[in-house]
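testing teh design pipeline on a random one, pls ignore if ur not involved
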């Protein structure tokens, strides 16, 4: 199936059993919950624990999503090029339509080495590449000019840019231009990013709130005002994503200020266990277990999640 880089690509959590192996039935349920509003599904991204799980578990998770009929993107978050190529080939054999490639690091990786890394993954598979740019978590920052070079590589179809700064997003959208598809890494900034030239979003939030897709419909209708209104309906998820016990409207207000003034998105405590707990409370047959050393759900976080889910707006 062709992997178009446009619209809404939903980054899935990875359902784990008590032995911390992929729970295929739970993973199918996660994929089904997101498939109705997704133009594609991403397995093994940062929210999917892609840097922590072994190849066989990531492939099992991807295979469990195949029944949705959606294009599947496999997350390739490996330190070495050799390991990235091995995983990418396994994803291709399992039916992946594309690959989301990011570079976690221990030592600094120069731009030339990253270009070679991305090219090696594409050359080994022939699959389209979505470059994953998340400097605060992966540790590799690329300037707009360096991002343009990556977008010029054969096989690179676009990039996911995880930022809460509209200042950064605007400069990167300009640099990418028509080379490839710029995709914002959070639907919380989707209305502004779309009307600045983004072609979509790559984000886990639609697992919790399917109404995110209304923002895309607003964009297609050229209705900016309505897209901003629909975005405000997502604010109930902010305590889950941030782990803060503050009211959602306070967190939302702070995020708006940060986005306008270009404040960076820090690598906060992982939200993965909180997202899984929210999905469990919403009826999905999964646990909140995560792969060590990711932090497990605490009692205080469980209370925050339960409160947010209880107060979420009615459909």
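output:
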């Amino acid at each position: 199936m062709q992997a178009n880089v446009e619209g809404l690509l939903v980054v899935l959590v990875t359902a784990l059993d008590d032995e911390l192996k992929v729970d295929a039935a739970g993973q199918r349920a996660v994929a089904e919950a997101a498939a109705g509003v997704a133009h594609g599904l991403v397995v093994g991204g940062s929210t999917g624990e892609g840097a922590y799980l072994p190849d066989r578990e990531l492939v099992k998770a991807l295979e469990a999503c195949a029944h949705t009929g959606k294009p599947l993107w496999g997350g390739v978050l490996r330190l070495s090029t050799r390991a990235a190529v091995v995983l990418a080939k396994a994803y291709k054999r399992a039916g992946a339509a594309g690959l989301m490639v990011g570079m976690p690091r221990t030592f600094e990786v120069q731009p030339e080495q990253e270009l070679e890394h991305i090219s090696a993954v594409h050359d080994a598979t022939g699959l389209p590449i979505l470059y994953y740019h998340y400097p605060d978590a992966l540790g590799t920052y690329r300037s707009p000019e360096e991002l343009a070079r990556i977008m010029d590589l054969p096989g690179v179809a676009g990039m996911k840019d995880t930022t809460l700064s509209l200042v950064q997003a605007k400069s990167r959208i300009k640099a990418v231009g028509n080379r490839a598809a710029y995709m914002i890494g959070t639907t919380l900034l989707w209305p502004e990013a779309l009307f600045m030239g983004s072609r979509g979003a790559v984000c886990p939030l639609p697992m919790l709130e399917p109404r995110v897709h209304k923002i895309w419909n607003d964009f297609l209708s050229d209705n900016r005002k309505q897209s901003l209104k629909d975005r405000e309906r997502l604010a109930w998820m902010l305590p889950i994503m941030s782990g803060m016990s503050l009211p959602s409207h306070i967190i939302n207000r702070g995020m708006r200020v940060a986005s306008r003034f270009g404040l960076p998105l820090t690598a906060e405590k992982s939200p993965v266990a909180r997202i899984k707990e929210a999905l469990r409370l919403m009826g999905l047959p999964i646990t909140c277990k995560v792969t060590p050393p990711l932090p497990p759900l605490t009692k205080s976080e469980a209370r925050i999640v339960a409160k947010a889910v209880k107060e979420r707006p009615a459909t």
